[in-house]
Write a structure and sequence with these properties.
about 30% strand; about 300 residues; alpha+beta; 8 helices; single chain; about 30% helix; Uridine Diphospho-n-acetylenolpyruvylglucosamine Reductase, domain 2; Uridine Diphospho-n-acetylenolpyruvylglucosamine Reductase, domain 1; Uridine Diphospho-n-acetylenolpyruvylglucosamine Reductase, domain 3; 5-stranded antiparallel β-sheet
């Protein structure tokens, strides 16, 4: 295969082939990627993008894998795993964070330095880059609210620092999905607080999440987005409430089932395929649409041909 030979030469030392992607998804499902790059530097990402462009190869940028459903057939192209882990104080209230940092590690780092503003993200799985890409949030807070700037790289390999407005953040989305720009690092602006109170708040939110979310389960958190509704707390009608009312907790397909404590979470019992999970999600959507005439939108991102 000519492309494979060229990529092995171009990306010598950082390229893997036929890489099992299930280990990078919290669902633990999915097939192989034709090509896989573990990007630990900006130069690694530049090289990978350039190689994909030169060989007309599709690519997907992988972060923490906490919000993905990867096709059982894998991904025909290259997966670029962003794994840059810088985490440091820039000044007394600003944190510079690499896109590959685990979001919870950032929350803990802020708390250790008596910085408040990220408590809402306590217990959210995934990477900082993925959190920016999807404007992660919970309990009335969103990542966009605490960002000063984002360093991006575009498909031509150009690097730029942009303000939050550039990313056009909305509920659980940004324009980065369409622009194909990759998050490299993020500058967060927080506020001084009482360390003891911050740690207590972090633990309180984690306790609340653990009562509703599987602690060790194979899942991706909330599968569907909440529905905009100005009359509801935080302006959203919980998808889980609608799913609860249509009896979604009783549903299962193969090794995939709806979590008994939260109707908007799908759990893999260890034997599920991505197809099982997708078929179960389709059943859930259908039941809500039939009863409420509301079409749920997936929060989970599909990777490959699903």
């Amino acid at each position: 295969m000519k492309v494979k030979s060229e990529l092995l030469n171009t990306l010598d030392g950082i390229l893997e082939t036929d890489k099992d992607l299930s280990q990078y998804s919290t669902f633990k499902t999915g097939g192989d990627a034709d090509f896989f790059v573990e990007a630990k530097s900006v130069e690694d990402i530049k090289r990978a993008i350039r190689a994909c462009t030169d060989n007309n190869l599709a690519y997907f940028v992988l972060g923490g894998g906490s919000n993905l459903l990867i096709s059982d057939d894998g991904f025909r192209g290259m997966v670029i795993h962003v794994n840059m882990k810088e985490l440091s104080l820039v000044d007394e209230t600003s944190i510079l964070c690499g896109a590959g940092v685990v979001l919870m590690d950032l929350v803990n780092f802020a708390a250790e330095n008596s910085l408040t503003g990220l408590e809402f993200a306590s217990g959210i799985w995934g990477s900082v880059g993925g959190a920016v890409f999807g404007n992660a949030g919970a309990y009335g807070g969103e990542v966009k609210d605490v960002i000063t700037s984002v360093k991006l790289i575009d498909i031509q390999g150009n690097i730029k620092d942009v303000p939050p407005a550039y990313c056009q953040f909305e509920y659980r989305k940004s324009k980065l999905k369409e622009s194909k720009e990759i998050v490299l690092e993020v500058l967060f602006k927080l506020s001084f607080g009482n360390k003891k109170e911050i740690v207590e708040k972090v633990n309180e939110i984690i306790d609340i999440r653990n009562k509703k979310h599987p602690v060790d389960g194979l899942c991706a958190g909330s599968f569907f987005k909440n529905i905009p509704d100005a009359s509801q707390p935080h302006g959203k009608l919980p998808a889980g409430k609608l799913l609860e009312e249509v009896g979604a907790k009783e549903l299962s397909v193969g090794g995939a089932r709806v979590y008994e404590k939260h109707a908007n979470i799908i759990v893999n019992d260890g034997t599920a395929t991505s197809k099982d999970i997708l078929n179960l999600a389709d059943m859930m959507k259908k039941k809500v649409f039939e009863k409420f005439d509301i079409l749920l939108e997936e929060e989970v991102i599909f990777v490959g041909d699903i």
